[in-house]
Amino acid sequence: MVTPWEQLNRRIVACRRCPRLRDHCRQVAIEKRRAYRDQDYWGKPVPNFGDPEGRLLIVGLAPAAHGANRTGRMFTGDRSGEWLYQALFKAGFANQLHSESPDDGLQLVDCAITATCHCAPPDNKPTPDEIEACREWFAQTVDLLPVKVFVALGGIGWRTVIDEARRREWWPGPLPKFGHAAEVELGDGRTLLGSFHPSQQNTFTGRLTEPMLDAVFARARVLLECEPKAKRGSAAPRRDKSRDSR
Ligand code: SF4
Asked: Could you tell me the pTM of the whole model?
Protein backbone atom coordinates (compact mmCIF):
# COMPACT_ATOMS: atom_id res chain seq x y z
CA MET A 1 0.00 0.00 0.00
CA VAL A 2 1.25 3.44 -0.85
CA THR A 3 1.26 5.67 2.20
CA PRO A 4 0.17 9.34 2.14
CA TRP A 5 3.84 10.30 2.65
CA GLU A 6 4.85 8.27 -0.41
CA GLN A 7 1.92 9.67 -2.41
CA LEU A 8 3.01 13.21 -1.62
CA ASN A 9 6.59 12.45 -2.59
CA ARG A 10 5.45 10.95 -5.88
CA ARG A 11 3.44 14.06 -6.68
CA ILE A 12 6.42 16.26 -5.85
CA VAL A 13 8.73 14.26 -8.12
CA ALA A 14 6.20 14.48 -10.97
CA CYS A 15 5.66 18.24 -10.55
CA ARG A 16 6.16 20.44 -13.65
CA ARG A 17 4.98 23.82 -12.40
CA CYS A 18 8.23 25.73 -12.85
CA PRO A 19 9.58 25.34 -16.41
CA ARG A 20 12.73 27.37 -15.67
CA LEU A 21 13.69 25.15 -12.74
CA ARG A 22 12.83 21.92 -14.47
CA ASP A 23 14.91 22.94 -17.49
CA HIS A 24 17.80 23.88 -15.21
CA CYS A 25 17.72 20.58 -13.31
CA ARG A 26 17.65 18.64 -16.56
CA GLN A 27 20.47 20.70 -18.06
CA VAL A 28 22.69 20.22 -14.99
CA ALA A 29 21.96 16.51 -15.16
CA ILE A 30 23.13 16.42 -18.78
CA GLU A 31 26.21 18.59 -18.39
CA LYS A 32 27.30 17.18 -14.99
CA ARG A 33 30.30 18.14 -12.92
CA ARG A 34 33.54 16.51 -14.05
CA ALA A 35 33.91 14.56 -10.78
CA TYR A 36 30.51 12.94 -11.32
CA ARG A 37 30.55 12.47 -15.09
CA ASP A 38 30.12 8.69 -14.78
CA GLN A 39 27.03 9.02 -12.59
CA ASP A 40 23.38 9.28 -13.56
CA TYR A 41 21.98 12.48 -12.12
CA TRP A 42 18.49 12.54 -10.62
CA GLY A 43 17.64 15.82 -12.37
CA LYS A 44 14.02 16.03 -11.09
CA PRO A 45 12.22 17.57 -8.10
CA VAL A 46 13.71 16.10 -4.92
CA PRO A 47 11.13 14.53 -2.56
CA ASN A 48 10.91 14.99 1.19
CA PHE A 49 13.15 12.71 3.18
CA GLY A 50 12.84 11.24 6.64
CA ASP A 51 10.44 9.92 9.22
CA PRO A 52 6.74 10.29 8.23
CA GLU A 53 6.02 10.60 11.97
CA GLY A 54 8.76 13.16 12.54
CA ARG A 55 8.07 15.96 14.98
CA LEU A 56 11.13 17.88 13.81
CA LEU A 57 10.87 19.37 10.31
CA ILE A 58 13.97 20.89 8.75
CA VAL A 59 13.28 23.44 6.01
CA GLY A 60 16.07 24.12 3.55
CA LEU A 61 16.10 26.42 0.54
CA ALA A 62 16.39 24.06 -2.45
CA PRO A 63 18.43 21.09 -3.66
CA ALA A 64 22.02 21.77 -4.64
CA ALA A 65 22.71 21.34 -8.35
CA HIS A 66 25.39 18.67 -7.87
CA GLY A 67 24.19 17.47 -4.47
CA ALA A 68 20.54 16.49 -4.06
CA ASN A 69 19.82 17.19 -7.74
CA ARG A 70 22.43 14.52 -8.47
CA THR A 71 21.56 11.94 -5.81
CA GLY A 72 17.80 12.52 -5.50
CA ARG A 73 17.84 12.78 -1.70
CA MET A 74 17.73 15.96 0.36
CA PHE A 75 21.16 17.20 1.49
CA THR A 76 22.91 14.15 0.08
CA GLY A 77 26.12 14.27 -1.90
CA ASP A 78 27.61 17.58 -0.84
CA ARG A 79 29.40 19.22 2.07
CA SER A 80 26.24 20.90 3.38
CA GLY A 81 24.70 17.49 3.89
CA GLU A 82 27.77 16.19 5.69
CA TRP A 83 27.48 19.04 8.17
CA LEU A 84 23.74 18.63 8.58
CA TYR A 85 23.70 14.86 9.08
CA GLN A 86 26.59 14.95 11.51
CA ALA A 87 24.65 17.42 13.64
CA LEU A 88 21.48 15.31 13.36
CA PHE A 89 23.35 12.18 14.37
CA LYS A 90 24.84 13.89 17.42
CA ALA A 91 21.37 15.04 18.52
CA GLY A 92 19.87 11.57 17.98
CA PHE A 93 17.84 12.43 14.87
CA ALA A 94 19.84 10.22 12.46
CA ASN A 95 21.14 6.66 12.69
CA GLN A 96 24.54 7.45 11.16
CA LEU A 97 26.95 10.28 10.54
CA HIS A 98 27.42 9.82 6.83
CA SER A 99 25.28 10.52 3.80
CA GLU A 100 26.54 9.67 0.35
CA SER A 101 23.71 8.19 -1.70
CA PRO A 102 20.09 7.09 -1.27
CA ASP A 103 21.21 3.50 -0.56
CA ASP A 104 23.73 4.33 2.18
CA GLY A 105 21.44 3.15 5.01
CA LEU A 106 20.80 6.60 6.44
CA GLN A 107 17.53 6.88 8.37
CA LEU A 108 16.12 9.85 10.21
CA VAL A 109 14.41 9.39 13.56
CA ASP A 110 11.54 11.69 14.59
CA CYS A 111 12.78 14.08 11.91
CA ALA A 112 12.10 14.93 8.27
CA ILE A 113 13.69 17.28 5.76
CA THR A 114 11.90 19.39 3.18
CA ALA A 115 12.71 22.50 1.16
CA THR A 116 11.11 25.77 0.12
CA CYS A 117 11.70 24.72 -3.49
CA HIS A 118 12.09 21.08 -4.48
CA CYS A 119 14.01 21.86 -7.68
CA ALA A 120 17.56 23.18 -7.85
CA PRO A 121 17.46 26.83 -8.99
CA PRO A 122 20.15 28.64 -11.01
CA ASP A 123 22.54 30.41 -8.61
CA ASN A 124 20.51 28.99 -5.69
CA LYS A 125 17.94 31.73 -6.26
CA PRO A 126 14.34 30.73 -6.91
CA THR A 127 12.02 33.54 -7.99
CA PRO A 128 9.08 34.59 -5.78
CA ASP A 129 6.71 32.92 -8.28
CA GLU A 130 8.64 29.67 -8.02
CA ILE A 131 8.57 29.80 -4.23
CA GLU A 132 4.83 30.39 -4.39
CA ALA A 133 4.37 27.51 -6.84
CA CYS A 134 6.14 25.13 -4.47
CA ARG A 135 4.25 26.34 -1.39
CA GLU A 136 1.51 23.75 -1.78
CA TRP A 137 4.03 20.94 -1.30
CA PHE A 138 5.24 22.55 1.89
CA ALA A 139 1.68 22.98 3.14
CA GLN A 140 0.86 19.33 2.40
CA THR A 141 4.05 18.25 4.15
CA VAL A 142 3.02 20.17 7.25
CA ASP A 143 -0.45 18.63 7.01
CA LEU A 144 1.02 15.13 7.10
CA LEU A 145 3.58 15.47 9.87
CA PRO A 146 2.96 15.97 13.60
CA VAL A 147 5.45 18.84 13.56
CA LYS A 148 6.36 20.40 16.88
CA VAL A 149 9.69 22.01 15.98
CA PHE A 150 10.68 23.60 12.69
CA VAL A 151 14.33 24.33 11.98
CA ALA A 152 14.73 26.81 9.14
CA LEU A 153 18.13 26.63 7.46
CA GLY A 154 18.48 30.21 6.23
CA GLY A 155 16.24 33.22 5.88
CA ILE A 156 14.14 31.92 2.99
CA GLY A 157 13.22 28.75 4.88
CA TRP A 158 12.43 30.95 7.87
CA ARG A 159 10.02 33.03 5.79
CA THR A 160 8.45 29.88 4.34
CA VAL A 161 7.60 28.60 7.81
CA ILE A 162 6.27 31.95 9.04
CA ASP A 163 4.12 32.45 5.92
CA GLU A 164 2.59 28.99 6.43
CA ALA A 165 2.16 29.65 10.15
CA ARG A 166 0.24 32.82 9.32
CA ARG A 167 -2.10 30.93 6.99
CA ARG A 168 -2.80 28.45 9.77
CA GLU A 169 -3.23 31.22 12.34
CA TRP A 170 -0.26 29.97 14.35
CA TRP A 171 1.51 33.28 14.00
CA PRO A 172 -0.35 36.60 13.91
CA GLY A 173 2.50 39.11 13.73
CA PRO A 174 5.01 40.48 11.24
CA LEU A 175 7.99 38.47 10.05
CA PRO A 176 10.25 37.93 13.08
CA LYS A 177 13.94 38.66 12.58
CA PHE A 178 15.89 35.67 11.31
CA GLY A 179 19.17 34.81 12.96
CA HIS A 180 21.18 31.84 14.04
CA ALA A 181 19.55 30.24 17.11
CA ALA A 182 16.60 32.65 16.82
CA GLU A 183 13.52 31.09 18.39
CA VAL A 184 9.83 31.85 17.86
CA GLU A 185 6.93 30.26 19.70
CA LEU A 186 4.21 29.45 17.18
CA GLY A 187 0.69 28.40 18.08
CA ASP A 188 -0.36 25.09 19.63
CA GLY A 189 3.01 24.43 21.24
CA ARG A 190 5.07 24.63 18.04
CA THR A 191 8.44 26.33 17.87
CA LEU A 192 10.48 27.71 15.01
CA LEU A 193 14.27 27.72 15.33
CA GLY A 194 16.57 29.56 12.94
CA SER A 195 19.95 28.32 11.79
CA PHE A 196 22.46 29.63 9.33
CA HIS A 197 22.50 27.32 6.32
CA PRO A 198 25.42 24.85 6.38
CA SER A 199 26.50 26.02 2.92
CA GLN A 200 30.19 26.28 2.19
CA GLN A 201 29.73 30.03 2.03
CA ASN A 202 28.96 29.93 5.75
CA THR A 203 31.08 26.99 6.92
CA PHE A 204 34.27 27.98 5.05
CA THR A 205 34.12 31.51 6.42
CA GLY A 206 33.44 30.45 10.00
CA ARG A 207 30.08 32.20 10.04
CA LEU A 208 28.65 28.81 10.99
CA THR A 209 30.70 26.41 13.12
CA GLU A 210 29.92 22.83 14.12
CA PRO A 211 29.15 23.78 17.74
CA MET A 212 26.74 26.46 16.50
CA LEU A 213 24.87 23.95 14.34
CA ASP A 214 24.95 21.30 17.07
CA ALA A 215 23.43 23.79 19.51
CA VAL A 216 20.37 24.33 17.31
CA PHE A 217 19.57 20.61 17.16
CA ALA A 218 20.32 20.19 20.84
CA ARG A 219 17.73 22.89 21.46
CA ALA A 220 15.26 21.09 19.18
CA ARG A 221 15.87 17.93 21.21
CA VAL A 222 15.15 19.74 24.46
CA LEU A 223 11.92 21.21 23.07
CA LEU A 224 10.72 17.78 21.92
CA GLU A 225 11.68 16.13 25.19
CA CYS A 226 9.60 18.75 27.03
CA GLU A 227 6.51 17.93 25.00
CA PRO A 228 4.02 15.87 27.03
CA LYS A 229 4.02 12.35 25.60
CA ALA A 230 0.20 12.23 25.59
CA LYS A 231 0.18 15.01 22.99
CA ARG A 232 2.61 13.35 20.60
CA GLY A 233 1.12 12.96 17.15
CA SER A 234 -2.29 14.15 18.32
CA ALA A 235 -2.37 17.47 16.50
CA ALA A 236 -4.97 17.40 13.72
CA PRO A 237 -3.87 19.13 10.52
CA ARG A 238 -5.42 22.54 10.07
CA ARG A 239 -6.76 23.37 6.67
CA ASP A 240 -5.20 26.19 4.74
CA LYS A 241 -8.31 27.88 3.34
CA SER A 242 -6.35 29.60 0.56
CA ARG A 243 -5.41 26.19 -0.87
CA ASP A 244 -9.02 25.05 -1.06
CA SER A 245 -9.53 27.29 -4.05
CA ARG A 246 -6.45 26.20 -5.98
S1 SF4 B 1 10.12 24.00 -7.59
FE2 SF4 B 1 8.38 22.93 -6.67
S3 SF4 B 1 6.57 23.75 -7.76
FE4 SF4 B 1 8.38 24.22 -9.01
S5 SF4 B 1 8.55 22.49 -10.46
FE6 SF4 B 1 9.87 22.04 -8.68
S7 SF4 B 1 8.55 20.82 -7.33
FE8 SF4 B 1 7.22 21.85 -8.78
From this structure: 0.92
Residue ranges covered by each domain of the chain: 4-229
Distance from C-alpha of 192 to C-alpha of 183, rounded to nearest angstrom: 6
Residue 32 near residue 124, CB atoms below 8 Å:
no
20 lines ligand 1 (CB under 6 A): no
Q: Is the CB of 79 under 6 A from ligand 1?
A: no
What are the average pLDDT values for consecutive 10-residue runs of the chain, which has 246 residues? 97 98 97 95 98 98 98 97 98 96 97 98 97 98 98 98 97 96 94 98 97 98 80 41 36
Question: Do residues 94 and 80 touch, judged by C-beta distance below 8 A?
Answer: no
Q: Which CATH superfamily is domain 4-229 in?
A: Uracil-DNA glycosylase-like domain (3.40.470.10)
Buried residues in 192-204 as b, exposed as e (16+ CB within 10 A): bbbbbbbbeebbe
Question: To test the ligand 1 pocket, which listed residue (130, 140, 160) has its Cβ within 8 A of the most ligand atoms?
Answer: 130
